[in-house]
Amino acid sequence: MGTELKIAPAYRDSHLPLYQEVIAGDPVPAPALLREYSEIDVPVARVSRDEYRSPAFAALEEERMWPRVWQFACREEQIPEVGDCVVYESPGASFIIMRSAEDDIRAYYNSCLHRGMKLCAGDTSVTKLSCPFHGFTWNLDGTLAHVPSRWDFPGLKDADMNLPQARVGRWQGFVFINRDHDAPPLEDYLGHLPGHFADWSYADKYLATVIKKTVDANWKTAVEAFLESYHLAGIHAQALPFGGDASTQYDVWADDPHVTRFLEPTGVMSDQLPRALSEQEILNAALSVVFAGTEPPQLEDGMKARHYMAAGMRAAMSDADGVDYSAMSDAEAADAVQYSVFPNMIIFRSLGYPYVYRFLPVRGDVNRATFEFLIFKPKPKDGGMVPEVNVVDLGEDDTFASAGVLPPWHGEIYDQDVYGLRQCQAGMRDGGDRDILYSAYQEVRIRHLHQTLARYLSDDPADTPGRAQA
């Protein structure tokens, strides 16, 4: 007699199907990597509120964590020509990400070696890096090119004046940097990600739009809101009939300190609703949000709402992208297949979610963060140049729904998140000293984030993830 395959924690108690049970009935089957489930015990049941609100804790992160992790800094297509630069404001350090040669990308500290002036105030293209203060100049390879009044610096040696660099790693068009020259290579850091995206290449896409919004929340508060579906009932109640919160699968891997994922099904009702919905009611609810005011079609006998929605997504995205997605699985077409990369990057492997998120602390304010919402499109089939990225900066009173980039119904979801983040951070800041509590399964990715963070903040260097021991 065979052993039953485990697809959820033994203590899960919900009458709704598990994610693996949902996709087992899909007409277009899911790939093998979505039919896997990984569960480990993460013994981080609660943390101090100070992890979210204390300037001292933020300073510790800036000292011990941010300098030692691989951070997504930019996309290669943002610096297509030699001399093109993007300024990346990493927590605690500013960098010039430059294409210094045709196939060479470097990350220079954005500071003159004379009096410390920023070499670049923003994204640009240069033939040399020249300080705007006194004119010290460097070649694209970081070697010293010119010192005004060189006679006034007796004993200065060119070899001592090369621009300091961070390490650079590249994966599928993403440019990562790491200030720690002893850190493990990017390929190791990314854990499961390269294998799970081997046939879902972001190298074939380009960054079309970036929506930036400063949110009233600590960077961890912000990123954690997108690591679970548990908040659906409170923040996105309109999605309860079709959002699949209780059926979402959460994966953490024992050998992967930096990557986790969830698989959130579309077209599955929440167990927070008082009664069971028919497939037609599920579809009606979904289409009333996406296509308000239109008459929903009647499902054929035996068809599930998620299968209708998956077929619709394949057709819509095939038209939008000029690519034939007709053979794509229902799970990849309709569901939110989402991975996190510690500490602050989220990337989707879903047709309907061509998105990446990045969250960065606002310097000097532990209660605020920058949320960057990146939207990707397929590269031109003719191999031509991709358009410049469209950057949309949302002000204090600007909303995702009114920005004109996302459909209003979709923007409304992110506006609900922004409101929820503000209220969550305010409560953590002003709500006393009781610890923050995490659920065992639906918030396991948050537990995992804090477990990894604690390892980086540890006084013992041996705790650092991936660090080879002598």
Question: Could you characterize what this model shows?
Answer:
This protein has twelve helices and 20 strands. Strands 13-14-15-16-17-18-12-19 form an eight-stranded mixed sheet. Strands 2-11-10-5-4-3-6 form a seven-stranded antiparallel sheet, with no helix packed on it. Strands 7-8-9 form a three-stranded antiparallel sheet, with no helix packed on it. With 470 residues, the chain is an alpha+beta fold. Strand 13 and strand 14 form a beta hairpin. The model has no long low-confidence stretch (mean pLDDT 96). The longest helix has 23 residues, at 408-430. Helix 8 (279-290) runs parallel beside helix 9.
Features:
single chain, 470 residues, alpha+beta, Rieske Iron-sulfur Protein, 2 domains, 12 helices
E-strand count: 20
How many alpha or pi helices?
12
Q: In angstroms, what is the radius of gyration?
A: 24 Å
Biggest sheet descriptor: 8 strands, mixed
Widest β-sheet, arrangement of strands: 13-14-15-16-17-18-12-19
Name the shape in a single word.
Answer: globular
Termini separation (Å)? 46 Å
Structural class assignment: alpha+beta
Give the oligomeric state of the chains in this entry, treating copies of one chain as homo and distinct chains as hetero. single chain
Mean of all residue-level pLDDT scores: 96
Estimate nothing, just give the exact number of structural domains: 2
Which stretches are poorly predicted, pLDDT < 50 over at least 5 residues?
Answer: none
CATH fold field value of the largest domain = Naphthalene 1,2-dioxygenase Alpha Subunit, Chain A, domain 1
CATH level-two architecture of the largest domain: Alpha-Beta Complex
Helix-residue proportion: 10-25%
So what's the CATH class of the largest domain? Alpha Beta
Q: Provide the β-strand percentage band.
A: 15-25%
